[in-house]
Amino acid sequence: GGDDGYRLWLKYDLIDDVAKRQAYARAAQFIALTGSGPVLRSAAEELQTGLRGLLGKTVPIISSVGSRTGGIVLRAGAPAATPPANREGYQIAADRNTLTISSPSEAGVLYGAFALLRQMQTRQPLDGLSLASSPKVQYRMLNHWDNVDGTIERGYAGGSLWKWYELPERIDPRYRDYARANASLGINGTVINNVNASARFMTAEYLQKVAALAAVFRPYGIRVYLSVYFAAPKTLGKLKTSDPLDPEVRKWWNDKVKEIYQIIPDFGGLLVKANSEGEPGPQDYGRTHADGANMLAEAMKPYDGVVIWRAFVYKADPKADRFRAAHEEFTPLDGQFDPKVIVQVKNGPIDFQPREPFSPLFGSMPKTPLGMEFQLTQEYLGFATHLVYEAPLFKECLDADTYASGKGSTVARVIDGSLHGYRTDGPSRTLMAGVANTGSNLNWTGHPMAQANWYAFGRLAWDHTLSAEAIAREWIGMTLTHNPQATSRIANLMLRSRDIYVDYNTPMGLSRPWTGVHFAPEPWQARSPRPDWTAVYYHRADSVGVGFDRTATGSNALAQYRPEVQQQWNDPETCPLPYLLWFHHVPWTKKLSTGRTLWDELCNRFYTGADSVRWMQQEWAAVKPALDPALHADVAARLVTQHREAIWWRDAWVLYLQTFAKQPIPAPFKKPE
Ligand code: GCW
Predict the structure, then answer these.
(1) What is the three-class DSSP state of 268?
(2) Can you say whether residue 35 is alpha, beta or left, with left for phi > 0 and alpha for psi between -120 and 50 degrees?
(3) 195 pocket-lining for ligand 1 (C-beta < 6 Å)
(4) Could you tell me if 243 and 371 lie in one domain?
(5) Which end of the chain is more exposed for a tag (fewer CB within 10 A), N or C?
(6) Which residues, in sequence order, are CB contacts of 220 under 8 Å at separation 6+?
(7) Is 40 helix (H, G, I), strand (E, B) or coil?
(8) What is the rounded average pLDDT of the residues 205-214?
(9) Catalytic residues
(10) DSSP 3-state assignment of 404?
(11) What percent of the chain has pLDDT over 70?
């Protein structure tokens, strides 16, 4: 039958190249398990499952290797020849006809097992194999914006995976497959509920349900975290206040955290959205983010858990520049956070736009561990009908230079701790989180190609030095096809998809986060429930030009960056075009480096972008023979929608902006569709 997408990149289909299959089979005649821990067991079972599919035979799991050779040996805790950089790292070495996967930890062996399977899934040789890899970031996690009623905020792949009404008794088999998929990437944590949190998750009733999920995830090295409703002491505890400096409130949290750890002994920690978009927080009591975070950190003190405090804040002030808000609120608190706290920062200063400059917080808080928050779910990237491969977006941010300690102070080096050495009194606290794009759809992510975004996030959380292209090729090989021509074509399509989207959606730094579902193009939208939640607030189109002046003549948000960064963006003559309208209000008639006026260049991008979706359709048609027909048809249909919607966005923007620019659409583009 057709491929329904359920198996993601863990497909393990029979290898049709017989010689290759036999070579793998010779190297994998048994799986020797030295130890009995549950995570090690998962490693052995996954290898067995994978090999059964790839090789078409059941490879036995044995407990003692003796003098046997020709198999795979799993070793946790054993000293390796070259020990990996950290506990979760692994080493795979081929020696005397034996493949040994070793790690200081069971989880590391599990990651090594998936790495070995990946070698075979991408048809790499095993002879003389020598692989060593360690995660660059300690907390690699998904954030689910899942609600108690089974809906998902900004979810486009169905309802929540978590069946609260069935838990804790019934365990949906899918929970385990979810864990396998994450573990295969090295993801080791999951926040299972929305940051716009319901206090209900903190009740004894729900904690039992959460514990049941934790029990499924535990053998895969994944810890469970919860988002916190900051006013829970009032709503759940019936206290008069939720003031973080109030002794009764502190006691309530201490008791609550104690209760959580009684039910879930390896609980990962708490994620908090406070004083943001109407959520309660310490500022309701005249306290700071640090006061709030440190109160929770104190409750966490006896346990091996962390407090993750989000920096996504801005006020409902149409006169202020939202771009500046997080930096203004958080940098004065640098050095005040408890060592158990990690501050989680969205990649850009506004809100997961198709292209944003990196957040100026990165590099501005040397004494506070900053974690990265990326969004996998395509809130601003065309939901589940647009094909947008996000790895280039992630890499653009990670590779950006903050100049915090001179040249080469990339965002990635802030995040992985190598720049500021986030080692206070304990282990390093480094974090990368992705807002999940999973849901109850059979194929997990709605758009089949969006699976690649989950995949790419996990791979980059493990190793941010991997290239977007290498990850795409790996994913294609494991998920779509082994045909080399088709692989190159699809990889190229994926790599260009984000820029194409930007061109027809928000070229050159136009921005558009407005109220509602965040899908329809409504650049004219000037009214909303909040004075700052309008389109016109963001793009600033007028009779002179368009774009948000963030230089000294405007909001001066640019001053939040180091001088070297300011220099790149300060001057409208030299500011790279992809960022131009983020920082400058540019006249319609201004000549750009492309030789076109701003108006003509905008039109050029909108039209070329929408036309490029046609190109995507052609490319996709060309790879049809190499792909599963059902999957091919699914994506082809979504591309038809994407093309229609690209034109819709283009026309909405162009016709709206034209009312200000008062210029004709350049001739080459005035052709009938
Ligand atoms: O982008 C906005 C989303 C909200 C979300 C918020 C946040 C969870 O539109 O739905 O709330 O960001 O990140 O807190």
Answers:
(1) coil
(2) left
(3) yes
(4) yes
(5) N
(6) 39, 42, 110, 176, 179, 180, 182, 183
(7) helix
(8) 98
(9) 277, 351, 379
(10) strand
(11) 97
Determine contact, residues 565/327, Cβ cutoff 8 Å. no
The pLDDT tens digits for 301-326 are 999 999 999 999 999 899 999 999 99
Report ipTM for this prediction. 0.99
Q: Measured between alpha carbons, how far is 123 from 398 in angstroms, rounded to an integer?
A: 30
Residue 302 within a domain: no
Q: Which amino acid is at 668?
A: P
Beta-bridge mates of residue 76: 103
The pLDDT score that the predictor gives to residue 517 is: 82
**Continuous segment of H or E residues that includes residue 343:** strand 341-346
Average pLDDT over residues 324-331: 98
Residue 540 covered by a domain: yes
Which atom from ligand 1 is nearest to the alpha carbon of 154? 10
Average pLDDT over residues 543-549: 98
In the predicted model, is pLDDT for residue 1 greater than 90? no
Residues 532, 650: one domain? yes
pLDDT for res 670: 74
* Residue 34 in tokens: 């030295």
pLDDT band at 31 (very low <50, low <70, confident <90, very high): very high
**Which residue has better confidence, 428 or 487?**
487
Number of domain units in the chain: 3
Is residue 431 within 8 A of residue 460, CB to CB? The reply is no
Please report which confidence band the pLDDT of residue 425 belongs to, taking 50, 70 and 90 as the band edges: very low
Give the angle subtended at the CA of 56 by the CAs of 54 and 57, to the nearest 5°: 115
Distance 383 CA to ligand 1 centre (A): 14
241-248: long-range pairs with CB below 8 Å, 24+: 241/285, 242/280, 242/284, 242/285, 243/282, 243/285, 243/287, 244/282, 244/285, 244/287, 244/291, 244/292, 244/294, 244/295, 245/285, 245/287, 245/291, 245/295
| Statement to judge: residues 520 and 556 lie in one domain | yes
**Domain termination residue (choose one: 115, 133, 151):** 133
Residue 70 has pLDDT above 80, yes or no: yes
- Residue nearest atom 3 of ligand 1, based on CA coordinates: 154
Evaluate: CB of 241 within 6 angstroms of ligand 1.
no
Any ligand 1 atom below 6 A from CB of 153:
yes
The minimum-distance atom of ligand 1 relative to the CA of 273 is 14
User: Nearest Cα to 43, choosing from 487, 81, 351, 51?
Assistant: 51
Distances from the Cα of 312 to the Cαs of 330, 340, 373, 515, 555, in angstroms? 10, 19, 10, 17, 19
617 burial class (0-12, 13-18, 19+ CB within 10 angstroms)? middle
Range of the structural domain that residue 451 is part of: 139-213+221-255+275-295+333-466
Which of 146, 152, 347, 351 is the best mutation target for the ligand 1 pocket, counting ligand atoms within 8 Å of the beta carbon and taking the most?
Answer: 351
CA distances from 484 to 132, 228, 304, 474, 643 (A): 27, 47, 46, 12, 27
CA of 269 to the centre of ligand 1 (A): 21
DSSP 450: G
Give residue 45's pLDDT: 98
The pLDDT value recorded for residue 525 is: 87
Average per-residue pLDDT for the chain = 95
CATH of the domain at 505: 3.90.1330.10
Say whether both 144 and 198 belong to one domain.
Answer: yes
- Sequence-ordered list of residues with C-beta below 8 angstroms from that of 129, at least 6 positions apart, any chain: 92, 93, 94, 99, 119
Digit-coded pLDDT (tens) for 439-488: 999 999 999 999 999 999 999 999 999 999 999 999 999 999 999 999 99
- The answer to which of 92-106, 241-255, 258-272 has the lowest mean pLDDT is 92-106
What pLDDT is attached to residue 34? Answer: 85
Task: Tell me the C-alpha distance between 266 and 254, whole Å.
Answer: 16
User: Does 150 lie in the same domain as 93?
Assistant: no
